[in-house]
Structures are given as structure tokens and as C-alpha cells.
Amino acid sequence: MSLASAIRTGDLAELPSRRDEDWRWTDLRGLIRQLPAPSAPLASGALAVGPFDALASRRELIANGQGPAILQIEGEQVLALRIVSQGEGAHAAAIRIQVAPGAKLTLLESYEGEGAYLAQTSLTFTISSGAEVERIVLADEAEDAVTVSEAQVELAPGARFGQAVLAGGARRQRLETRLKHPGGHAEVRMDGAYLLAGKRHCDLTTEVTHGAVDGTTSELIKGVVRDQSRGVFQGRIVVAEGADRTDARMGHHALILDDRAEVDAKPELLIFADDVSCAHGNTVGALDEEALFYMRQRGIPEAEARALLIEAFVGEVVDRITHEGAQDVARAWLAAKLGG
Amino acid sequence: MPAVKQTVEHVESLEKYKHGFVTEVAQEFAPKGLNEDIVRFISAKKDEPEWMLEWRLDAYRRWLELEEPTWAKVNFPRIDYQDSYYYAAPKTGEGPKSLDEVDPEILETYKKLGIPLREQEVLAGVTGAPKYAVDAVFDSVSVVTTFKKELAEAGVIFCSMSEAIREHPELVKKYLGTVVPTSDNYYACLNAAVFSDGSFVYVPPGVRCPMELSTYFRINAENSGQFERTLIIADAGAYVSYLEGCTAPMRDENQLHAAVVELVVLDDAEIKYSTVQNWYPGDPETGKGGIYNFVTKRADCRGARSKVSWTQVETGSSVTWKYPSCVLRGDESVGEFYSIAITNGRQQADTGTKMIHLGRNTRSRIISKGISAGKSSNTYRGLVSAHPKAKGARNFTQCDSLLIGKQCAAHTVPYIEARNGQAVFEHEATTTRLSEDQLFYVMQRGLSQEEAVQLLVNGFVKDVLQELPMEFAVEAQKLVAISLEGSVG
User: What residue spans define the domains of chain B?
Assistant: First the structure.
């Protein structure tokens, strides 16, 4: 059951609904009454440049669901994977990304679009031992779109995986990452931020399953919601039986800037081993009035003080991105979102 | 060195489950199974008015339409609802007029459990010791309620539910089922149809209940379920502290306990509700037997500045599935939840709370300490929500889990829903095992491993123990130790 299978079969009953525990706050079945026709192919020549094109050593495009099915990564690569949707149709794409032993991949993944499209993108990562992947996702979908991006990550022992998802929401936007952590000193960073306004909705869902000893996971999610937007975070850390010496930390912090905005969160820890150190923290609230007051009495105008505080709050996620160019793009995107 | 002596005695007194005995007492049962006739039978047995029977039958019909929920992180074989007795009561003629008419076997049972039913026994204790009134529920019926006279002088009504239906129908009609509606959930609905007894408390406006009230539940009969229903009303400005305890014999089959507790708190009133739950947990090796504890507990803070504090120590039952909740409807109302949940052997617990912020400037606090040992599983599941009108809502949640052993599991599943820009919610959770360093330190000071674990665990749960009334706190501390017996080494 998924948006992709509903698009494929045309069966509305395939859509996940609030009755499915993992979709309780992002109800697609209640939202979509009719499935649109399949999207028409997009001519790639007509597209302007993508946000990460200038940084990349290799560029791949998925336009209305059409694009490569397998990407092989060897050596060191900076790959810009651009996912573009246009029109009022429905489309789904599936891509396998195979990272060879010892390879180093910086994946700069971007989502953009125009129209009221329905789209699902499913990515499957296989990351071999000794390989290193940093995935930066900039999800800037159209306001009327309904989109799901699903990533399955399979990590070999001794590999490294870090991600930062920056999301601007859509009519419904879901970005899901499920990772199998092999332990064996593999390191995982699982960050994200959502910046929402208007009636946009964004759902960041992550699941990290520690299957063996000596694994580390660090997760930091920040959110800012204004107007009538809604942010959802579902984070699950599973430590399987025997996965001792796992160290997993998860934090989700959100700012609600307007009275009618909403944040829903479910940070879960499911622990089946005893020699572990796991923690999560979750805070939701308004901007700290005391900090604001302090800045104002130092002569900073209120609007500017607010902007600074919010930028600093979300900026923590951007600071953890290691690729410098991508960090700059992320920071500029953040500033533009907060300025508007 | 009294402390050392006490520790020695304490460790010696550790047994597997000391409440596992059966009382031989002449009992009366309803026929096995569940249908409308059984509901009528229970109602007739209790001499209930027509409206109560109708209420039950309505609940029974609704229950038939409901589906058994399966979302909790617990596994147990499907319950055959037709293979149980829904009513079991010690045989008496007219019902005891005074304590002297109560079956001596039952009195003996409560004595063995350490529950004083004779007022003079309570009074014979240490001078200045706090008095507390007891309502004793044995299988399906309340056998005795103490200190009724003294409470009546203060205007407090404390009696069994069946008595309240007879004596105070206006209060029962006004409040029963208003906090937990009949078809709230599968087990609450079943309870509404077949509930047999329970406690009823009404504290009139401005009255501070002069003593602690407590109910002691005991399942004794074989193959029977216990479905008690408790209703506590604190009228404007009133205060009451209520304790409940529960035990059951060791049996190979599972028994169902599906209770409903409703608390109504009006303006400026406060209810403190403490539970020490020690139902038979089943055999620690095989997991055979034990109580299924599926309880619905909810407090409705209807009045402004009302307050409810739930404190629970959950050590028993083979499967526990309960979430004492607070609906914070009144402006500036306060909800608190302090919980210790311990699972050992093959026990499973899925427990936590719900804090539903509806009024302005409502506040809540959740402190949950879960300990899992053996092959058990322990889940904290909680909901904190602020509705659009709950401006200024504030919550702080701390839930910590401690793991002892390689085969146990500890889960934390909090749900946080903030629907306005002026709510502030903070949540933190940790899961760790008992610190090797601390264990080593305590052991090199001369404590055995078992004692060291007890000491550290008691430190871990201290924040919650402090919330319990004094006498309960001492008992709970011992219970924590007993529950973890055999979990190390």
C-alpha cells in the first residue's frame, strides 16, 4: 500500500490512510477522491537549471517520473539528482543507487515542480563497506502537489551515511527514510528541517534499525511552522536483540509562530537490547520571549530579532552539512524561506 | 543498626509472589458465559433500578458491535468471552450488616494481605498514625467499607457502587459514564455491561476529606473476570486522596480484569489517585497464567483550577494495558502522572497517559519510570495534545527506561500534538541499562549484587515514590524489590 501503488493500479484503496499507524497525521485516502491521469512526459530541454547543478560532477534528471532506474557510484562523485514534476497528472519513479566499496558520494537531491501533481519517488540505496554517502535533499514542491519520497537505505558495516532533508511542504508532502544500520562502527546522521507557511503540510518520517553491535546514530530535526501549516515528525529508532553498545540520539524541536499552525510528533524508541544508550528529546513551542526581549533591548528591531532567532534555530541543521557548496545552497534557501 | 537489620529481613522476605493463595469461601456464581440474561442476572442480583439495567443492556448491545483492539505492543491469545464467569460473590444471606457478619475467611484473607478492615485495628496502630478508610472488593462485590460514620460526619460519601446506585441515584445518574462514555473502547464497554461493584466517592463543596480513602481489590474465584467501576467526584474546592491496591491468587489460566475509573473534578478541587497494582503476574518461567489488566482510567478536570494527580506503581499482571488520562477542560487546570512500571519474567506492559489540554493555561507533568527485566516487555505510550483554544498550555514529560538483562525490551512511544502557537511542550526520554560503574561501586561497599540492584533501582524510581502517600511508598519500595527478584546473576 502506497501512493505509488495507487498510481500504478488506479485503486484508491491502495492509498495509506489515518487508520494506518505510520500515516496517522498524513491521511492520503481522506484527501484524494480521484486519481488523475498519468502525467505527460516532460521535455528536459525546456527546464531551467537545478539548484545544485553548479556543484555537481554528474547530473541526472527524473522528469515526471521518467529517468534512469539504476545509478552506479564508484570513486568520488558529486551527483545532482534532480526530480522535476509539472502538470496535473500522476507519476511514480523508482531508482536504485548502488555505491561501490570505498566510494564517496555526495548526493544533491532536489525536488521542484509546478501544478497540482501527484508524485512518488522511491529510492533504494545499497551502500557497501567503507563507502561514504552524504545525502542532501532540497524538497521545494509546488503548493498544490501531493508528494511522497521514500528512501530505503541498506548500509554495510563500516560505511557512513549522513543526510539532511530540507523541506518546504506541499498540499501534502511526505519524506520518509528507512535505514538498516549494520552496527560495526558504522555512523549515521539523520537530520532534517521543515519550514512551512500558508496551508502547507510536511511529514518527515524516519526509521533507523540497529541490527548489530557498535552502531551510532545521531538525528536532529528542526521545524518552523507559520500561518495554518502543519509539520509532522515521526522518528523511530529500533535496537534489535543483541545490538549492544548502540548509541542513538534523536532530537526534534519545533517553533510554532502562528496560532493556527500545528505540529505533531512521535519520537519512538523500541529497544530489545540492554547495553545501549538511547535518548530522545522533543520540544514544541513559541519563540523564546526572553531572548527576543534581550535582543531588542540591545537595539535590534523586533522583526530582525525574530528572523535572527529563527535562523539560528534552524541553522543548526545546516551547520551539520559537511559539503560546503551544498551548505551554502541550503543556507540561502533557508534565508529565502524565512524572509518571505 | 536498624537499617541493616531491615535490609536483611527485607531480603529474606523476598518471595516469588506472596499474595498467590486462594481463599476457600462459599461462593455464588452467575452461569458461565455472556449474554443479555447474564447482564439481567447481575443487575437483578444487585437489586438495581430499571434505568441501570437499561444502561447495562445498551452497553452490552454496543459491545457486540465493537471490535477488540490490537494496536498495543502486547501479545496474548484471543480471549474467549464465553468461557468466563461474570459474577462471583461470597455467599451471604442478606449481605453483611456489620463486620461481624462478614465471612471470617474473607477477613482472614485481608488480614493476610495486611489490609485492616476493623476500624479498631487501624486505631490500635501507632498513636498518631494516619487513619484510612477501606472499601474491600472481593471478586464481584464490595464486602465491607470502613469508617463510614466518621466520613458521613464530614459529608463525604464513600460506599460501594451498588450502594450508591441505590442510595444516591441522582449523583450516579448525573456523573456515571460522563467521563468514560459507554462505548469509549472495547473493554470499557464490556465493563459498562457487566460491572459488578467498585467504589463511589463524593466529596461535597469545600470539604477536605478527613482521611485517605482506599479500595482493595481481590480476585479469588477461578475462571472469573473482575469488572469494577469506580466513580469519584470532588465538588468545588474539595480535596480527596484515594488509594487502590489489588492482588489475585496464582492460577494457571488467565483472568481478565477490565475496570473503569472515572474522576470528576470541579472548580478548585483536587483528586490524588494512587494505585499499587500487584495482580498475579503469571509464572515467570513459562508465562502461564496471570491477570490481563485492561483498565480505562480517566479524569475530567471540568472546573477552573482543578487538579488531578495519578500515581501508579505497576508491578503485577501478565499483560497490562492502561493509560490513566486527564482531560484538562477547566482553565488553569493541572494534570500530573507519576508512574513506575516494572516487568519481569514474561510480563508485558503497555502503559502511559494522555494529557488532553482543552482549557487556557492548563499544565501537565508526566514522570514515567519503566524497568524491564527477564524476558519481559515494557512500553511507555503517551499522548500530549493541545487544542486550538488551549492557549498557554504547558507540558513537561520525562520518561526513562531501565533494562536489566539481555532478553527484555523497553519501548517509548510518545505522541505530541500541538495545535496552537502558545503551547509549550517538552519531552525527554532515555533508555539505558543499569550502570556498571554504580553497581561496582555499591558492591565494593559490601552489598550483594541483588541488594545493589535494589538500591540503584530504588534511586531510579525515587521521583515517583515520593509522590505516593507515606504508607504506600514503603510498601511500593518493597514491591519494587520483590518484582525484580531473580532478575540478576
Answer: 2-483
